[in-house]
Amino acid sequence: MPKNMNQNHVITIDQEVETMKKQMKEAPKLLLKSAGKNSCSIFRVPQSLVEINKEAYRPRIVSIGPCHYGNKDLAMIQEHKWRFLDDMITRTNKQLDFLMKNIGSMENRIRDSYSESIDLGSNDLAKMMVLDGVFLIELFRKVGKLVPAHQDDPIFKMAWISPFLMRDLLRIENQIPFFVLQKLYEVSKQEDHDCTLQSLILEFFNYMVDRPQEVLKKYANHDGKHLLDFFRKSFINNNRDSVTRSSVNRSSISRNLVVPEAIDKPNHSLKLIKPATKLVTAGVKFKANHQADSFLDIKFQDGLLLIPQINMDDFYSAFFLNCMAFEQCYFHCTKDITTYVVFMGCLMNTSADVSLLSHNKIIENYFGTDKEVAKFFNEVGKDVAFDIKNNYLKDLFVELNEYCKNGWHVNWAGFKHTYFASPWAAVSAFAAVMLLSLAVLQTLYTVISYYKKDGDK
Question: How far apart are CA 249 and CA 244, in angstroms?
Fold first, then answer.
């Protein structure tokens, strides 16, 4: 090889090494190295989850926060944000510079709330937070009738907007920090209104998820990391002994894999449960729990599985998916929604299982066919990280599996399922029992007659 070619080759390698060294020092932008901190709670959904349901995480009519900022497909509602901001400024006499300075002082906290780098300057970031935050607060106030809304306002008059809007506000990529909302609410609050921001939010979403006022009052002063987290927490029982975070020393499992205990003696009943139709053949009965405060409040006692009724529709399906994405990404929270979806996915393996739960008024199906409901729960729970040993239903998993082990109630349930599943099967079984009984009586009569004659001799 000529000498000059070798020198060129060495120079090229040296340049590449320098480039590599620079890249080693560059901080990640798509997933910040600080994304595991407690303060970071707004995430871009991983592609592995997006592939399961591509439409579940993308806003359809409104962008909130930086992830979908500037999307031209969402420009229609974006224009109305300025009108809502003008409404608030006019009503409260607050100056824009006052709002900008209040939010601008939180810049570092705001940036720390996102898992990826925000490509906006300080002023643009503050402007976006003010515009989006005031839009949300004014929306809650107008719906809650704290402030007047224009009688012909299309946001409230066009029937198609409301359901899309409510789903968009609960998408994980469409969030701003809750402390931003709190600050904007406090500085724009009028003295004659004593409602909390939380109570307004719950009343707003109660148009989609109808819950009693006494349930909503329990969460009227609670907080969350953002709207999605706050609304998610309003279904979680604070008195329940639920683990606050997943232990890094415990193994996670997928839907189809159970990892044995590494230290403790394994509990062989702590495993995923059978589908609803198979549980019935094992003697388990199903009943809708209409007294529960939350769809998470599932109970099992003396062979009866009490499950709160849930209306499966587009709102709940999107809510479940975004809650699960949040729980998969955010280390510092319970995994209760993930646990619930995995549990329901176990129960609803086929359309027959869904039909059984619908018959027992546990599922109100506005989602599609029974097959589509079963497919939804099976697909969304298939590849999520789920720790069988560290969730709020782990004792129920054990109790159900223990109950379904061999025992008299299991054998009796199997007998009933085999011989009394239909009227004709019951008639056939009854006829067979009668024939058997007559045969036994005839045999006894013959034996008794024989010994009687033998005795007379």
Answer: 15
